[in-house]
Design goal:
With 370 residues, this protein is α/β, with parallel strands linked by helices. The chain folds into 2 domains: 120 residues, Alpha-Beta Complex (Aspartate Aminotransferase, domain 1); 233 residues, Aspartate Aminotransferase, domain 2 (3-Layer(aba) Sandwich), CATH 3.40.640. An 8-stranded mixed beta sheet has the order 2-9-8-7-6-3-4-5, with helices on both faces. Strands 10-11-14-13 form a 4-stranded antiparallel beta sheet. The protein has a two-stranded parallel sheet with strand order 1-12. A hairpin with an 8-residue loop joins strand 13 and strand 14. The longest helix has 28 residues. The relative contact order is 0.17. The structure holds pyridoxal-5'-phosphate. Pyridoxal-5'-phosphate binds next to helix 5.
Length: 370
């Protein structure tokens, strides 16, 4: 099996912990256990038995996750190690070599790369900047063929932070239904919508949908490594069979804490914090863009912990990012990792002071060198 380098993750793995100001993350600044849990809950965690537990996830956690969706039972949910594992299990169990998969890009690109390695034929449909990073349904119609099995979309989107209005979600579902296609949505940013209006889940809109999600982004707990899949029972069972090969089970402590944070009141409290951090930082970014309009522009994100910023300087995005890292100890993500040079992805979930520093160094660098 030949995997193309997952450059987006590789560049972060190499450098994100070596800089003073890491602005390459796409989530919200994580909680500590002390900030997240009450003293009593911390005591309870100490009593968690460190066994394997249920390999598809503790029944009470699966039920709590099922409750986040319309009329779902615990058997329509599997718990995974991050949404990253959920995405891998989805590809392993839903697709096979020779199938065609339509990927709406730009996108996190994990599914894109893994599917290619399995011999699945990947077709791309772009989100267009000039329409606020929306897909064009005619372009979608042009790429499907009788061999197309699934459309996959990241919603809300990494890296643009765009969301689809409800009528566009319905149009996409109607398209999938008309052509009898599976729809997969990676919804790990759902809940971080800056206006506080959470998008519906695609799995509540379409019977042939399977979604992946988790606690790493909107919920600001990537270190728990908890994700999940929700979909039809038989498909979820298949993903469980794949999980026997990948990780067997998620961690017992993580599952225990996950079941606290997915309860509606706690989840709502966490999302208020996420949106507060993101909105403050978007305001900062917006005024910085106003002051640097000759060099930078951006369709401000509607959700998620990142902004996809276009720049006009004559420098390759990877080169720019390495220069900022080496000279200023700031880490951003180059648009190159999405095949989109002239963009940089800037994390907006980090503490405000990091964003301020990042933006300051970026504009100083740009104005003094170009
Ligand atoms: C869209 C998307 N899906 C999945 C992941 C993987 O996240 P995790 O495994 O931490 O849930 C990421 C990480 O950046 C992401 O952006």
């Amino acid at each position: 099996m030949e995997l193309v380098e997952f450059t987006l993750e590789r560049i972060q793995s190499l450098y994100e912990n070596t800089v003073d100001h890491n602005l390459s993350d796409s989530g919200v600044h994580p909680y500590t256990m002390r900030e997240l849990l009450t003293q009593q809950q911390i005591e309870e965690v100490l009593n968690v038995e460190l066994g394997y537990g249920w390999t598809n996830g503790a029944p009470e956690l699966r039920q709590s996750v099922a409750n986040l969706y319309d009329n779902r039972s615990a058997d329509e949910v599997i718990i995974t190690n991050g949404s990253a594992e959920a995405n891998i299990l989805m590809v392993m169990s839903m697709l096979e070599a020779g199938d065609e998969l339509v990927v709406v890009v730009p996108n996190y690109l994990q599914i894109w790369g893994f599917a290619k390695a399995l011999g699945i034929i990947v077709r791309e449909v772009p989100l267009r900047e000039d329409t606020g990073w929306q897909p064009d349904m005619d372009e979608l119609a042009n790429v499907i063929s009788p061999r197309t099995k699934m459309i996959t979309i990241c919603h809300p989107n990494n890296p643009t932070g765009s969301t689809l209005p409800r009528d566009s979600m319905d149009t996409l579902v109607a398209f999938a239904r008309k052509h009898d296609l599976w729809l997969h949505a990676d919804e790990v940013y759902k809940g971080s919508e800056l206006d506080g209006v959470e998008s519906p889940s695609f799995v509540d809109l379409y019977e042939k949908c399977i979604i992946t999600s988790g606690l790493s982004k909107a919920i600001a707990l990537p270190g728990l490594r908890i994700g999940w899949l929700v979909g039809p029972k038989d498909k979820i069972y298949k993903t469980w069979q794949s999980k026997d090969y990948t990780s067997i089970t998620a961690g017992a402590v993580s599952e225990y804490i996950a079941n606290i944070v997915v309860q509606p009141t706690k989840r709502a409290e966490i999302l208020v914090r996420s949106r507060r951090i993101l909105n403050e930082n978007v305001a900062l970014l917006s005024s910085w863009l106003d002051n640097n309009a000759n060099l930078f522009s951006c369709i401000l994100p509607k959700a998620g912990g990142m902004a996809f910023v276009r720049y006009s300087m004559d420098i390759n995005s990877t080169e720019l990012v390495h220069k900022l890292r080496e000279d200023r100890s700031i880490m951003l993500l180059p648009g190159d990792v999405y095949g989109m040079d002239q963009f940089i992805r800037l994390g907006i979930g980090a503490p405000k002071s990091h964003i301020e520093q990042g933006l300051k160094h970026l504009s100083e660098y740009a104005t003094s060198n170009f």
